[in-house]
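Q: what sequence does this backbone want?
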């Protein structure tokens, strides 16, 4: 059976960009007669806001999205908050022990070691600590543990973007899978998607390069990877990813302004090529869902303050 997941992070309120990705993931699952899992990725402790989890649930339900598994409807895959799944990640770290090493480089150290500019948040790590003998006294709960990334080009077929190729040692270098005993995003996603039987991961294309890291971990852990589908992001008029600088796009703000969820869903369907933009519920869009209709590039949101709904 087709299985995908909605995996929000409770580091802030859901915005239009999140809503579009979640809506399209939900539609793809429902059109396939599949299942949807709601998993909360709450390992980014300094940024996690406790109240955000309840807000996420409220926003998704307001839009008309549901799910088959989650903390409010658990199955054998419970719990669904990553902060409650730490034993699974630590077991995986134990299995990876021979492929890991401690790293004491700061972000400033890594930035200063760059030989060329890197786009976005991607920083190349020159494997500085791989062959160092780090004294045990320097290893603590903030020490990064890096996975020795395989050399050589790897490819996978993205179900939206097509064939993707990259060499981890060329664009990334060895990457972090834990800090102290706390697992990092790459490892937690792999462990959870495998354990929960996810067959396709749907997310924004800003995470496309993460797939190569995750595929390396699937191999090292002897797990079967899901398929991947990366969707174009929503951007502001400046061409940059939709953010606070473009105005308030939070679903809670739109809801408080009296804008109906049907208008929001209709707008998201229009910019995704699925309808003419008339108000709609997610359920009404299932029959007409077609991945081929979705625009191939980033979509500009001209009025991020909600004026397009009025």
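A:
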């Amino acid at each position: 059976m087709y299985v995908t997941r909605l995996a929000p992070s409770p580091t802030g309120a859901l915005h239009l960009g999140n809503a579009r990705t979640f809506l399209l993931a939900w539609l793809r699952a429902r059109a396939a007669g599949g299942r949807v899992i709601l998993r909360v990725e709450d390992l980014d402790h300094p940024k996690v806001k406790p109240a955000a989890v309840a807000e996420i649930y409220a926003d998704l339900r307001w839009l008309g999205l549901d799910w088959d598994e989650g903390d409010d409807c658990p199955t054998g895959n419970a719990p669904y908050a990553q902060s409650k799944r730490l034993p699974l990640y630590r077991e995986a770290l134990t299995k990876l022990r021979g492929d890991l090493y401690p790293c004491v480089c700061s972000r400033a150290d890594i930035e200063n070691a760059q030989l060329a500019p890197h786009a976005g948040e991607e920083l190349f790590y020159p494997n500085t600590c791989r062959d160092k003998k780090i004294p045990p006294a320097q290893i603590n709960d903030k020490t990064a543990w890096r996975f020795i990334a395989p050399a050589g080009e790897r490819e996978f077929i993205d179900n939206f973007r097509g064939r993707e190729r990259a060499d981890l040692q060329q664009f990334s270098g060895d990457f972090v899978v834990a800090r102290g005993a706390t697992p990092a995003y790459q490892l937690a996603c792999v462990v959870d998607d495998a354990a929960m039987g996810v067959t396709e991961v749907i997310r924004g294309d800003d995470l496309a390069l993460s797939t190569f890291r995750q595929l390396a971990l699937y191999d090292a852990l002897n797990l079967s990877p899901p398929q991947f589908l990366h969707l174009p992001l929503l951007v502001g008029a400046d061409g940059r990813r939709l953010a606070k600088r473009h105005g308030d796009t939070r679903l809670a703000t739109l809801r408080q302004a009296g804008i109906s969820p049907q208008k929001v869903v209709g707008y998201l369907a229009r910019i995704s090529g699925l309808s003419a933009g008339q108000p709609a519920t997610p359920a009404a869009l299932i029959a007409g869902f077609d991945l081929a209709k979705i625009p191939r590039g980033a979509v500009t949101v001209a009025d991020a303050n909600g004026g397009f709904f009025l």
